[in-house]
UniProtKB/TrEMBL annotation:
It comes from Streptomyces dioscori. Residues 340-504 form the GAF domain. The keyword Acetylation does not apply. GO terms for molecular function: ATP binding; kinase activity; phosphatase activity. Its main location: membrane. The chain crosses the membrane at residues 6-31, 170-189. It is found in: Cell membrane. Residues 522-742 form the PPM-type phosphatase domain. One of its GO terms (cellular component) is plasma membrane. Keywords: ATP-binding, Cell membrane, Hydrolase, Kinase, Membrane, Nucleotide-binding, Phosphoprotein, Transferase, Transmembrane, Transmembrane helix, Two-component regulatory system. Gene3D superfamilies: 3.30.450.40, Histidine kinase-like ATPase, C-terminal domain (3.30.565.10), PAS domain (3.30.450.20), PPM-type phosphatase domain (3.60.40.10). This is Histidine kinase. It holds the Pfam family sCache_3_2. The keyword Transferase applies.
Amino acid sequence: MGGRSVAGQVFLLQVAIVLLLVVAAAGALVLQVRHDSTTEARNRSLAVAETFANAPGTRAALSAPDPTAVLQPRAEAARAGSEVDFVVVMNTDGIRYTHPKPDRIGKKFVGTLAPALAGKSFTEEITGTLGPLVQAVVPIKADDGTVVGLVSAGITTENVGGVGDRQMPLLLTAAAAALALALGGTALVSRRLLRQTHGLGPFEMTRMYEHHDAVLHAVREGVLIVGGEGTLLLANDEAHRLLDLPEDAEGRHVLELGLDAGTGALLASGHVVTDEVRLVGDRLLAINQRPTDLKGGPAGSVATLRDSTELRALSGRAELAREHLKLLYDAGVGIGTTLDVTRTAEELAEVAVPRFADFVTVDLAAAVLSGEEPDAGTSLRRTALSGIRKDAPLYAVGERIGFISSTPQAQSLGTGEAVVAPALKEAHGWLAQDSERTAQVVEYGIHSLITVPLRAGNLVMGVANFWRSEKPEPFDEEELALAEELVARAAVSIDNARRYTREHTMAETLQRSLLPRNLPEQSALDISYRYLPAQAGVGGDWFDVLPLSGARVALVVGDVVGHGLHAAATMGRLRTAVHNFSALDLPPDELLGLLDELVARIDQDEATEDGSAAITGATCLYAVYDPTTRQCVVARAGHPPPAVIRPDGSVDFPEVPAGPPLGLGGLPFETAELKLEEGSRLVLYTDGLVEDRERDIDVGLELLRTALTGADRSPEDTCQAVLNALLPPRPSDDIALIVAGTRALGADRIAEWRVPSDPAAVGEVRASVTRQLTEWDLDELAFTTELILSELVTNAIRYGNGPIEVRMIRDRSLICEVFDGSNTSPHLRYAASTDEGGRGLFLVAQLTERWGTRYTPAGKVIWTEQPLP
């Protein structure tokens, strides 16, 4: 900026030129504006004068007694409207009739009149009474062409110049902006010049070039600069040495320098590469290449060459070690993601292909797959196979393999140590295993093998085999160590999966042994069911179907919290308790009350013994259906409500009071009575069907309603439809589902009599029974049935209270029931030889298949069952 440098001098010269151009442009613009303003003033004054002279009434006003009175207002109005400084009307002698200044009226006009008196309009610039001005004089002519007056209009020079003055600020502003832009552009150009040269003069730049040239040829890295057309522009000494370039290489095309085709094509192409290794002669060169025109530079590229022959070998070993560590890390993360033996073996095979071996096979003892400890021996089952191709002639998955003692696999199983076979075509012990198959394996290209035993402590579960075909080098000792480490990590996961499989199998076996294997025969309900254990572990869901007296059937579903053996065992205890309680013919609410007390006692006993987890939280739903009345009595303890599918296909969830879960105690359970039409379907289920981690129970119940809606479906079809709609891919909880289609016993299969409290009525009962049995074609049972009912009715009359009723039901067996209003229960006893009575119930027990007592709100019922002939 001081002017001492070339950049400064150029800067000052450009500023001077810009200023000169701006001044010249401003002067020319001022002159042009003034000329245009004067021309505009002449045109405007002439137009105003001619317009006023030819205006209607102007000529007539000249003949008026007082022309001034008529013309002065008109002239002033015209002057104001046309933006001129004056409009003067005068006679032919130049005496004014009008003027902006009234004191000038009547005086002589200042200016030239001759051209106007001659009939011509003209303009002139003069100094008049208002000062320097531009004015026009126009004649007023009579009809015959005689000039009878004159009109003059004008603009003072001050106003003429004012137009230019008003435009001057805009002109100067534009000039200033242009000057600023010129100065800015000049400054930017100068700054770039300074930046590129760093303010250096020729001497400094020459010295810098010499230093750069010395450094370029001294570095231990080859540098090549290639032009846009592939011409070698510069090569330092190291580049000459590494590429063995001729002395006259600069200026020649790179393809003419004797380089190998690949390297020459790369340098000529200018493509971007980073550390691309190429074999040039006996050297491994790492080539980096970048274009030179990325930021506006000249077309071409610059390449650097580095001899990495020795470093390559070292880095290769380091990279291999890094890959091995990465493989072990991935194996730790990717093996053992599930507690499934087969899947864990597959994960071992998948993680090692193709990063370590081309093919991997895993062979396990059959006992391991079922969760047991394997016996000593070499008979294994191929569990997993993974490879770079699918057509390898190795044993397929699922095949049972008996390895002979000379094979590496048998040696590995026997010693518990890994075995490497570097050349399979020379491994005679392996070739003897299966001469036809081993020949195919060798012909296929598999040439090297590592066999590693899958050990967990002293337990050998099988072997893992690593096969190589693509890489020509055989497995070495370092890779053997890696294979051992890899298999050791997988063996722990496989053993964990084996132990889990054993425990899961035991729990599932226990659970299924505790669940009903076959549903009992009964006529009240058409039942289908589904039971699905959880994927994560065996749970405590259970169900049961219990025939009761009087052709009734009880349905029960329950759920014990938790999973595993404890939950399965607890479920078995509860199911057994329900069996025992149901044998007492208790109402559902009383049965749940007893079950609640039982669970509380179990919790107390277990807490005092070993502090194991309590089972409080178990739920249960108990329903009793009577086909003679189509009544269903339901009670539940913390369990989801039942669903009822009506014969028309509609679905509802009846309001059943929700008692607390079993074991909490303190609150009584309540029942709900449902009237079910014949052909209805009663649906009982556990919460695993409608609730999980990703679905709220309200959503699940609505999905269940949708799946159940629809008529004309059997219970079996209904079960399948529900599972298709609601079953998750991997259930996290057990699922128990019962669909029971209701049936009703017709009136033709039921006979009822009201019996008076009179011993004489017993004979009438026997006669009625005989007639009814004859009608049912059961005459063979008449004698025994008369004896049974005679005894029961006699006891009811003697020891019970009225009313007394007798009912016979023909179902799968002949059912006889005697109702009375007493709560006293009869007891079976053995009468002594001297006793006169006490043998009635003994005879009843001998003549019937089953008998018992159940209580009703109004009394009790003594019932018996006899098999049909």
